[in-house]
Model the fold of this input.
Amino acid sequence: MDWFVINLLNGFSYGVVLFLIAAGMSIVLGAMGITNLAHGAFYMVGAYVGWTVGVKWGAGFGLALLAGGLCAGLVGLAIERGLLRYLYKKPNEQVLLTFGFVYILANLCLWIWGGWPRAPFTAKFLTGSMDIMGRAYPKARVAVILVGLVLAIGLWWLQEKTRMGAIVRAGMDDKETTMGLGINLERAFALIFFISAFIAGSTGVIGAQLLGVHNALGMEILLLALIVIIVGGVGSIQGALLGGILIGVIDSFGRAIFPQLAMFTMYLTMIVVIIVRPAGLLGRKI
Amino acid sequence: MKKLTTLFLVVGLLVSPVLFGGGMTAKAAEPIKIGSILNLTGPIAFIGPLFKNGIVKALEEVDYTIAGRKIELIPEDAAADMNVCLEKSKKLVEKDKVHIILGPLMGDAHMAIAPYLANKKVVSATFYCGDIELTKYKNWFIYPTTLEGLTLPVGYYAAELGHKTMITAGSDYAGGHGFINGIKVAFEEKGGKVVQDVWWPVGNKDFGPYFSSLKKADCIGYFVEGPSAAQLFLSQYQEFGVKIPLLGTTLAADMPEQILSQLGDGVLGLQGQASYMTDMDTPINKAWVTAMTKRFGQTPGGLEANSYSITKSILAALKATGGDDSYDKLWPALLKVKINTPQGPLAVSPEGVALVDNYIVELKKKDGKYYWDPIKTYKAVADPRLKK
Done:
């Protein structure tokens, strides 16, 4: 029983990180039609900035979260305002441009922070383990689950219950009519892109508690985000949450039960979803 | 959705983990060109410059000249990508006309480029061990020894500690299997029993599920690929409260001061195998560490020591041939090399495998500084499959 609970918690903690990574990318893809392959690189930038603020400067984990999110958000905003806004409805160009930024940002991080990886870090009060059913379990992972669920509710509220969310949903369904109603969609899109990059950056700091920081994160995270979006469906917070948790739990039990088939279970889930439900479990048609 | 799936496949290919002339004669008037395949970008970008520093130092010591011929170093970046390794090998051989290539690091890349380099008669060197399969090509200098040979001391030492049962745990790729096999062979030879083999994929980030499924055993003999994975493995080992003692491999190389200072005191007392320690108390090592620190502004570790010793061996062979870098002259000369290096005395087996001392080390701390203390030496340990 304790083995089951430990692996369930592992799956939830990993799944929450996956959800947070995918949520922003999914909304940007669903609402703006932008395929942002630099999303994983925003995660990496946030993680590095968070490490600098939280570990190197010792300014605390809360500030690290904020700084990581803010820095990634501003980088994202600059890319959207400077380049991406000229490439709406041009998916090929979007892919090339944003994939280029994966390399640019990775090399910038290499230049600024060097190549040595950074060990996982967390808030002081979350260091160490707690007892769960007689087994030691990292406190930081429990905190990741709780923080992730709070953020999930916040994002759901933002998308479903606010004027901003209504504009996003309207823009996803019918861009022209929404603009015809006098809504400045371009400004709304810039804000959405900033929020998406902000979440990616903060998630970099949250994820650093489990995964540490290194300069290939941009690529690794991108692949995971795409799997979660395919499983959960594009453009929905609930879809990203379901996809993230499902992939996290399946991956955790897969590794524990079939260690040599690790990762295979993740891809198998994706293949099954593509066959059975091509739009994803809770996806909107795009 | 179809577009998204296609996109996923394209990205998957792009980020796949393996993002990576015959009849040559030396011309005395031309410089000897030494190619090197390093990882200067990509996921292990921090490793490339360290290997390069060791090579540069060895060449600077002879003022880039041997037996009257100038030496030109041509470094190439493979970004830890096996395919790029092959491309860069071809570029070095066909465009730059090199007869010697140092590196790459990863075992999979060795196997990918070995047939080509053997066909072109290029003397090649592994930066950190190599599969014994490479010896069949008769052009690979495998340093410091074969994959299995390197980790034999871990198995012997576990048995000497009185351990009867062991779990082996390692990264699931050619190199990982070689290292784990060495531990296993030695432990079983001494009467121990391996009760569980655990494998995780290269690039694994979450060791929690693996820790939750461990059987009962006296110790865990493990290998993880590189500093990033070593950090995650050890920090999660502590967080999950695993009580089975660890015996590690490639410790000093994977965990220099930069990594240890981040892990903190929780890993003090960790024991395992290392082929070089910065604090080795020999005059040649002390002088080398001082010179390297002065030259590059940072204390050298196992990676620099490896590439330095490899380059010194090649230079010794070139000196013996009078500067002739053709395969037919250089390879036999390399097999006869006997030198003293910061790592210790070095000789070469008839198959091209280096014969050097190997160590069991323990992590200690003195004056706020972490260091690997050698607690046992295994003299010139060799893979049992090599000729005696």
